[in-house]
Amino acid sequence: MRRKSGIAIVATLVILVLVGLLVFGTFYTTQIEQFVTRNDSTSTQANYIAQAGLQKYKTALFQNFRWALGQPAVNASACENPLYAGIDWDRNGPGTMQTFNSQGQMVFTENIAGGQATVTMRRDANDRNYMTITSVGRFAGAQSSVRAVFNLANAGLLRYAVVAGSGSGQRAITGGARVRGGVFIEGDQNNPAERVFVGSGSMEISNSYNLSGNSLLSTRVVPVQVGNLCASFRVRWGTIGIGGSAGLGSANTQQNPNNNLVDIKIGDPILVPSHPNLALAYTTSGNSQLITNQTCTPFCASFVGRYDISDAESPRFPRLDGPGTCGANQTWRQCIIADARNVVFTRGNFLPALPAGASWSNAASCSAILNQTTISLDSTTIDCRFNLNGRAAGGFYYTPNGNDGVLEVYGSVVMQGFNLQTTRGSNQPRSILYRAYGYDQSGRAATILLQRGSDGNGGRLLLRGNLLPDGTAPFPQQALALMAEGSSNDPTSVQYGDNQMTVAAFIYSAKRITMSGSQSALVGMVIADSLCVDSSCNNQGSTDIYYVDPGINLPGALAAVPGTRVAVFQILSYERF
């Protein structure tokens, strides 16, 4: 009996030990599961905090970028991110900007939901349009990090070398133009499959220029060299075709990396050739994708895809009788006339009425041209200035001066029913040098608008010979805008009439601009319903267009056009690490 009793005790102890181990194991496992659950919970919470910190500063960055674009002191570089120097978080104006530290960073700490987020905003030293936000969330000992890279750009109308409309039944751009700068084509919403752009021959759209070797322009244009114009190619409605050796951007990014465009965004889902015998090297179905190969003929850009600006935000080709920005229900034309103080030179017998207190500088000289259909700037002096407070305030004044005539323009000059011709001949000026002033000589920017008359005639601009700023200030520190509405029965509003001629100005053509002169150039920008580089728009001829950013020295007419500032805010990458 004793032996059996001892065995029972041992068995009981074994059972108790086993039960204890089971209980301890269960307890330990429960503790581990609770710890893991708690750790997962805190890690998730830390991630939420990191995400919240990033989202807060992403929203603030976008709001400040849009606000900064609307400020009158936005810098003059096409590639200059207005937030690169610093950010005015409260948007209170000068003196309240927070600047980046010596590492190009701003660091913020935010208390969020019982945890903390450390947010670092960093500007990119190599590309001023790029901003990186890194957010580190911490909660109860757990940590999580997220990072996003953003591209901030202004896609407004004045950021392109060429702005084209619908083409009015023709392609918006044809021929072998070499464009240094971006291109925007609105196209026709009712015909989104229309080919609005055909590049052939030596056509090139690139991202930089260098005028230092140009004897005409090296001392008359600033900056004389730009390595990165932030050039984009955008088509809102339509398709494009590329053939021959033509290309958008450089075909070799190793040899010429700055000529790679920022992006190519086409409204139609597929980029198609304009003709069966035009080879197409690259197509996209619409999703943006990065091109990493070293040769990318013919579409060379960091991003290629569908048009990327919403209908509400998208710029539009400006029409004279479309909306202006000078007041409610005011057209662009009305804004320009208001900037001219309602002084409109009209073909006929009478000088226009002047603002109170103003008087003509030479009424007889100005009256002598009023019956002319075409006003020629040649060997005859024309004085249509009016004075205020003892000095020239408005109008224009032309004097022949040997090889170089001189044209002075004050504020906005509106001419109705006239054609204007800058004439070059054996006994006439080979160049016209202009002096541009604001109204009453406030600033150095001016406009000439040629309107068609009530009979449908006039409104045409024929450029012959060079038209350049004089030596008092380079372009665009003094800036001239030339605008032509065109006549009712002529498809061309502006025409280059000579070979080897150079114009430094901002040109608006309500209809077509024909730049048919061989080895001719435009420095500034052109806004036209369509652009041809030969007289028949048949892809022949060539010309050079160099984009120069107007900055804040805008002629009154350009200041009144809508769509000059369009904020593009792209998320390039988003990661958790």
Enumerate the spans where pLDDT stays under 50 for 5 or more consecutive residues. 269-295
Number of domains: 3
Question: Based on DSSP secondary structure assignment, what is the total number of beta strands?
Answer: 38
Number of helices: 4
Shape: elongated
Determine the N-to-C terminus distance.
71 Å
How large, in whole angstroms, is the Cα Rg? 32 Å
Helix content: 10-25%
Mean pLDDT: 84
Which strand-content bin applies to the residues?
35-45%
Q: What structural category arises from helix and sheet content?
A: alpha/beta
Task: Summarize the main sheet.
Answer: 20 strands, mixed
Explain this structure.
The protein has 577 residues and is an alpha/beta fold. It has three domains: 31-154; 157-299, no CATH class; 332-538 and 551-559, no CATH class. 15% of the residues lie in helices and 36% in strands. It has four helices and 38 strands. It has a 20-stranded mixed β-sheet that branches. Strand 5 and strand 6 (142-154) form a beta hairpin. The radius of gyration is 32 Å and the shape is elongated.
How does the SSE layout of this entry go?
Blueprint: H1 2-69, E1 86-87, E2 98-99, E3 105-112, E4 115-123, E5 130-139, E6 142-154, E7 162-164, E8 173-175, E9 178-180, E10 183-185, E11 195-199, E12 204-206, E13 209-210, E14 225-226, E15 232-235, E16 239-242, E17 247-248, E18 261-266, E19 289-290, E20 301-306, H2 332-339, E21 344-346, E22 359-360, H3 363-367, E23 374-377, E24 382-388, E25 391-399, E26 404-410, E27 412-416, E28 419-422, E29 431-437, E30 445-451, E31 461-463, E32 466-469, E33 479-484, E34 492-496, E35 502-515, E36 520-532, E37 543-547, H4 556-559, E38 567-576
Parallel strand pairs: 7-10, 7-36, 8-11, 9-12, 9-37, 10-15, 11-16, 12-17, 15-18, 18-20, 21-27, 23-28, 26-29, 27-30, 28-31, 29-32, 30-33, 31-34, 33-35, 34-35, 35-36, 36-37
Antiparallel strand pairs: 1-2, 3-4, 4-5, 5-6, 6-38, 13-14, 19-20, 22-24, 24-25, 25-26
